[in-house]
Design a protein that fits this description.
This protein is an alpha+beta fold and 113 residues long. 25% of the residues lie in helices and 38% in strands. The radius of gyration is 22 Å and the shape is globular. Mean pLDDT is 82; it is low at 1-29.
């Protein structure tokens, strides 16, 4: 009988651990940052951001870094989760930075008109 209690306790613990992993795993997955940028063809670039769970990105920092990692443009997403900036010369990287683990980087080569 004592052995049966140990097995039931172990199974219950295993079940709780698996349930916790599923719940916490899906919660982390549900808030993935998303950002896309496009060339407007008029010397400006526009970016739109958000999160996979539909959350707004209003107020999220967006910066543009040159090929040496220096910040050349910095701002925040507006109330529509958008940010438009003058296209820098040369190669650059757009960094959508919603905090640790929530950063999206887009190279200028991947921005299409």
């Amino acid at each position: 009988m004592e052995m049966m209690k140990g097995i039931i306790g172990t199974r219950a613990l295993s079940t709780l651990c698996m349930l916790g992993a599923v719940l916490f795993g899906s919660a982390a997955w549900a808030h993935t940052p998303v950002c896309m940028c496009w060339d407007n063809g008029d010397g400006t670039i526009s970016c739109e951001g958000g999160f996979s769970d539909g959350s707004s990105a209003a107020g999220v920092e967006l910066r543009v870094e040159d090929e040496k990692g220096r910040v050349v443009i910095q701002g925040k997403m507006n109330e529509d989760s958008e940010f438009t900036f003058d296209k820098p010369r040369g190669e650059f990287v757009v960094v959508f930075d919603a905090g640790p683990g929530h950063v999206v980087k887009i190279t200028s080569r991947n921005i299409k008109q």
